[in-house]
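Homework help board

Subject: predicted structure for assignment chain

Our instructor gave us this sequence and asked us to write out the predicted structure in token form, then describe one feature. I got the tokens but I'm not sure how to describe them. Can anyone check?
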Amino acid sequence: MYAEERQQEILRRARAMGRVDVVTLAEEFAVTTETIRRDLTVLERSGVLRRVHGGAIPVERLGFEPALSTRDEVMIAEKERIAKAALAELPDDGSIIIDAGSTTGRLVHVLPTDRELTVIVNSPPLATALATRPNLSVIMLGGRMRRRTLATVDDWALQPLAQLHVDVAFMATNGCSATKGLTTPDPAEAAIKRAMINCAQRSVLLADHTKFTNTYLARFATMAEIDMVISDSGLDDQVAAELHAAGPDVVRA
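My token output:
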């Protein structure tokens, strides 16, 4: 088993059982405890586990939300494939929302230059990246900016969304499941995401396969409220089937 495969299995077990133990993992994988500790360090640096005495706990169990900069450094190839697949869902012209997030951020950088679009964002970094594009009209939602996600929230962002109607909302999420829907740790950010979906004719979720094992505090949509899920080839067949049965089309890039 390659190190990357072992680390993914460690993460899977941590999420399934709530925590993992170094000694037990070393015995089960037939490697040294030092090897397991290195694996846990890699996973902690990726923002998905938190080291504790003798083992590790998945960050969602601690209510911990990795910073955007941390999330932007993992699953890079998968996120780029998802973003490119999302281009097929763009209107020929019209308006779109791009939610703040590491995967949706990849979409910003691959938007085509051959069509006129109005793009609404709630992320200053995304607005800056879009501002120099002559074919785009960019609307930046105001409000309080959350440092961890660099997303604007609260009334100054919610009020404009109540007056808007867009063709497509490209959404990000921290967690997703067929039964629990789309979830995020922060209720204020959940409110913005919910308003984005409500003002869109179609909603498309962009999420790599690791998001489908997590559930967080605040739900902002059920699967029935999402028209399409675009993930990567790592999304489990059974999970994909459960998502589709709950409502949306599922694309694995």
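Reply (TA_rk): Your tokens look well-formed. For the description, you could write something like this. The radius of gyration is 19 Å. That's the kind of observation they're looking for.
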